[in-house]
Amino acid sequence: MLARLLLWRVRGLVLAGLISVCLVSCTPSSGPPRAVVLDALALQIELTQTSIARTLELPPSIGHPTVSRVRIEEQSVVKMGAHNGVHLLGRFDWQLPGDRIQVDSPFDLYLEQGDKKQSWRLAQQADPSGASELNQQWFTYPLPLA
Fold it and tell me: How far apart are CA 61 and CA 58, in angstroms?
């Protein structure tokens, strides 16, 4: 009788442990750290400014934009080739160096997570109007470690 009771307790503990592990491993991650999102938005602004300056044959801007008040409205997991990524939609405030005007803008951001899940890269679609996310080619830019 005592052996049977002990066996049931052990089974209960093992089952509770398995359920806990499954719940922790099956829940989606909360996404990239806030610092990664801030760095990615600043880099996206810099890349856009550089592209505009090059097209207009102007000197590149000096300094880094200030990014603040990031509000993520939607977040989804995407596959980027062999890597996992995150697609973020939302709004943020930003300001160019030396400019007094702060702008509130929407953003559409793709981030690729590194193989060891310790690093992130800003990802931009090579042809945004072309293939689906599954077949899409990506340009990626490393972000500082958070």
Answer: 9
User: What is the edge-to-edge ordering of all strands in the sheet holding 103-113?
Assistant: 66-80, 83-95, 103-113, 120-125, 138-142
Q: Where are the domains of the chain?
A: 34-142
Per-residue tokens: 64:
């880094």
Torsion of CA 112, 115, 119, 121, to 10 degrees: -30
pTM: 0.73
Q: In b/e form, how buried is each residue of 125-134, taking b as 16+ CB within 10 angstroms?
A: eeeeeeeeee
* pLDDT digits 0-9 by tens, 86-143: 999 999 999 998 889 999 999 999 999 988 888 999 999 887 666 565 567 889 999 9
